[in-house]
Amino acid sequence: MRKKHYMLLAGLVLSIAAAIFFFDPKRPPADDYARSVTHAMAGEDTPLGRAVAPRALSHRGESGFMLLSRGKDSLQWRLAAIEAAQRSLDIQYYMIENDNTGKLLLEAMLRAADRGVRVRILMDDLNLRGADPTWPLLNAHSHIEIRIFNPFATRDEPVFTRVSNVFTGLGQFSKRMHNKILVADNTLAIAGGRNLGDEYFDASGDFNFRDVDMLAVGPIVASMSRSFDSYWNGDEAFPLAALHPTPDNPQAVSGLRGLLQRHWQEEHIAARAPVAGQLQHGEVPLVWAKAELAVDAPSKINLPKEQVGSKPGLLLNRMAAKAKQEFIIVSPYFVPGEGGTEALKALVDKNISVKVLTNSLASSDAVAAHTGYRRYRQALVEGGVELYELKPAPGAHPHSSRFGSSSLSSLHSKIYVVDRRDVIVGSFNLDPRSVTLNTEMLLVIHSPELAGQVITMFEKATRPSASFHVVLQGKQLEWVSTEEGQEQREGAEPDAGLWRRIKVNLFSLLPLENQV
Question: Among residues 72, 103, 175, 178, which one is catalytic?
Answer without folding.
Answer: 178
